[in-house]
Structures are given as structure tokens and as C-alpha cells.
């Protein structure tokens, strides 16, 4: 099991949360800036972030970025990269994985990989069926080397060391557990337990999770059953986040578009439960279209009017 660690620059308490009115009265309409003003602010912020990122880029990082950009800009290179990650790395039998690598490289290796990698992959592809175990280790090493800055081993002490180093540098970390697709309830329970373990850690205060990672065999055609299982898992996660010290912010993410409605519905339903004590620091959902953003905004206003509770939606994306 691995984690994706997304560094987040230090900032104040979530700026987009709003406190409830002091008295029970209708919430006045919100006056928003014009689209032109918002677009100008967004462009200025994006430019500032890009300039700050480039200013801190090391020579090795710049070289790696150029190499990846060259690879992704080439259709053949991009297809080969996707085939390697989606096929070769996912095959657990070394012999089958080696044969697949041989077949993928039999027609040649794209020049966009660069001279050294192109020669190495072409050579490895030719001899792979004869040395499957060595081939597996070589491919794992090369992919691991390229992704070492963003995909981390979840095992100790590597994880703790990374978190300690990055937080010491002033960054917050968004921890996202990675793994194969969930196929059964036992795998879902195991993955959920691992997410809960991260939520409860004192050195973790931000975790991303997908409903497809904590519930197996979700089906929009079996909405009632799917929602019941999702809500049970989310309640456990949100309560753990609320009770953790420091409190952990849970970002409800999404892997496939088909999970969007189930994600939104379960998120709202859990927080609308009578006596819900989920805090603004414990949850957030990020709708991905204007229509669903408006739906979330209406729900947010209704929840504020009914409960005077802080809004658990941190931003719309």
C-alpha cells in the first residue's frame, strides 16, 4: 500500500468557512463579484502559484518535468506509459508481466522516452520472458524512482520521516491511500481501517478518501443499498476525524464520474442527520459542475438556517 502526499502551503484556518448568524433571522443574499473580477483574481493567483513553484524548482526537478512533458506530448509515449502502469505493473504473475512487456516493446520504443530509457526498455523487453523476476524488479525500480517525490511507501519509518520533514518546512500534507480496486467487503473493511489509522495519527491533519475505496460494488441502480453502506463508513470516518487531535480534515474525493451522485448524496445525508456533530474541520465535498455546485450551495444555506452550524463545504472545484 502506498500513499500520495500532496503538499499544501501553510495557510490560516479554512478561509471559506463562514460562521452562523448570531440571531435567528433570514440570511441576507450574498453579493458576489462579477465574473470578470473573479476570473482576474483566479488568473493572478494561478500565476503567483506558478511563479512560486518555478522559483523553488531544483535542476533535477526541472529535468524530470521536461522529460515527463515530452513523454506526455507524444501519443506513442503516452500510450506506452499508460500500458506499462495499467497492464505490466498490475499483473501479479512475473512471467505474464514479462511477456506483456515483451509484446508492448516488440514494435519499438518511442523516441520521446529519451536515449537511455529507450535503449534500456527496448533491451529489457527483448530478454524479459527469459528473466521475469529480474524484469519485474527493474520495472518497479524505474517507476518508483520517477514517482518517489509524490508516491510514498505507507510503511514506517519512511512515512513518519517524510511527514516530519515536510511539516517542518511549513507544509501541510494531504494524505491519500492508494491501492487496487476494491472487489469485496473484506477488502473495503481493510482499506477503511487503514484510512482510519491515518485519520487518528497525531501527525496527519488532512486525508482524502473516495467512496469507492471504502465500499465495494457500488451501483447507482441499487441506490438505497449503496447509500446505506456508504453512510455507515462515512459516519465512522467523520467521527474519528472529529475526535482526533488535532482534528483531521476529510476531503471526500471521487475516482469515477459515476460515483458523483452517490458521493454528494451520502455526504449531505450524513451531515443532515439529527444531532450531527461533524465539525467544519472534519469534512468537505467538492462538486465538479455548476449545477451540482448550486445544489450544494442551496443545501449549505438550508443547513445554516436550520442548525447555525459552520459550513462543511470548503471550496467548489
Residue runs with pLDDT of under 50 for 5 or more positions:
10-23, 311-317
Q: Percent of residues in helical segments?
A: 40-55%
Query: What oligomeric state do these chains adopt?
Result: single chain
Mean pLDDT: 78
- Strand residues, percent: 5-15%
- The assigned structural class equals alpha/beta
Distance between the termini: 28 Å
User: How many runs of DSSP E, i.e. beta strands?
Assistant: 6
Shape assignment: globular
**Main β-sheet, spatial strand arrangement:** 2-1-3-4-5-6
- Report the total helices: 12
The helix-strand sequence is EHHHHHHEHEHEHHEHEH
Largest sheet: 6 strands, mixed
**Rounded Rg:** 23 Å
Structure at a glance:
By secondary structure, the protein is an alpha/beta fold.
Structure overview:
There is one protein chain. Among the domains are: 74-146, no CATH class; 180-307, no CATH class. Helices cover 54% and strands 9% of the residues. It has helices at residues 35-55, 59-73, 75-88, 94-105, 115-127, 132-146, 158-168, 185-199, 211-214, 223-243, 260-271, 290-307; strands at 2-8, 151-153, 172-178, 206-210, 249-253, 284-285. Strands 2-1-3-4-5-6 form a six-stranded mixed beta sheet. β5 (249-253), α11 and β6 form a beta-alpha-beta unit. α4 (94-105) packs across α5 (115-127). The radius of gyration is 23 Å and the shape is globular.
SSE arrangement:
Blueprint: E1 2-8, H1 35-55, H2 59-73, H3 75-88, H4 94-105, H5 115-127, H6 132-146, E2 151-153, H7 158-168, E3 172-178, H8 185-199, E4 206-210, H9 211-214, H10 223-243, E5 249-253, H11 260-271, E6 284-285, H12 290-307
Parallel strand pairs: 3-4, 4-5, 5-6
Antiparallel strand pairs: 1-2, 1-3
Amino acid at each position: 500500500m502506498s500513499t500520495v502526499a500532496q503538499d499544501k502551503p501553510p495557510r490560516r484556518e479554512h478561509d471559506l468557512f463562514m460562521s452562523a448568524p448570531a440571531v435567528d433571522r433570514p440570511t441576507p443574499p450574498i453579493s458576489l463579484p462579477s465574473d470578470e473580477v473573479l476570473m482576474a483574481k483566479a488568473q493572478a493567483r494561478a500565476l503567483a502559484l506558478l511563479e512560486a513553484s518555478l522559483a523553488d524548482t531544483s535542476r533535477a526537478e526541472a529535468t524530470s518535468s521536461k522529460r515527463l512533458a515530452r513523454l506526455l506530448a507524444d501519443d506513442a509515449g503516452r500510450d506506452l506509459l499508460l500500458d506499462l502502469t495499467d497492464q505490466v505493473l498490475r499483473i501479479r504473475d512475473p512471467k505474464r508481466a514479462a511477456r506483456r512487456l515483451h509484446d508492448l516493446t516488440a514494435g519499438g520504443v518511442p523516441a520521446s522516452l529519451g536515449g537511455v530509457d529507450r535503449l534500456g526498455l527496448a533491451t529489457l523487453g527483448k530478454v524479459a520472458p527469459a528473466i521475469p523476476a529480474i524484469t519485474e524488479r527493474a520495472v518497479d525500480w524505474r517507476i518508483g524512482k520517477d514517482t518517489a517525490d509524490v508516491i510514498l511507501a505507507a510503511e514506517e519509518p519512511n512515512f513518519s520521516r517524510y511527514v516530519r520533514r515536510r511539516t517542518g518546512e511549513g507544509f501541510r500534507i494531504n494524505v491519500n491511500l492508494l491501492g487496487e480496486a476494491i472487489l469485496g467487503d473484506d477488502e473495503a473493511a481493510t482499506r477503511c481501517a487503514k484510512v482510519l489509522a491515518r485519520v487518528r495519527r497525531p501527525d496527519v491533519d488532512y486525508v482524502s478518501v473516495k467512496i469507492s475505496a471504502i465500499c465495494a460494488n457500488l451501483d447507482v441502480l441499487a441506490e438505497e443499498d449503496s447509500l446505506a453502506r456508504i453512510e455507515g463508513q462515512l459516519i465512522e470516518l467523520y467521527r474519528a476525524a472529529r475526535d482526533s487531535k488535532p482534528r483531521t480534515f476529510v476531503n471526500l474525493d471521487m475516482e469515477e464520474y459515476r460515483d458523483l451522485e452517490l458521493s454528494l448524496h451520502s455526504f449531505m445525508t450524513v451531515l443532515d442527520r439529527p444531532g450531527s456533530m461533524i465539525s467544519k474541520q472534519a469534512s468537505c465535498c467538492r462538486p465538479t459542475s455548476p449545477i451540482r455546485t448550486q445544489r450544494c450551495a442551496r443545501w449549505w444555506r438550508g443547513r445554516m438556517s436550520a442548525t447555525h452550524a459552520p459550513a462543511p463545504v470548503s471550496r467548489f472545484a
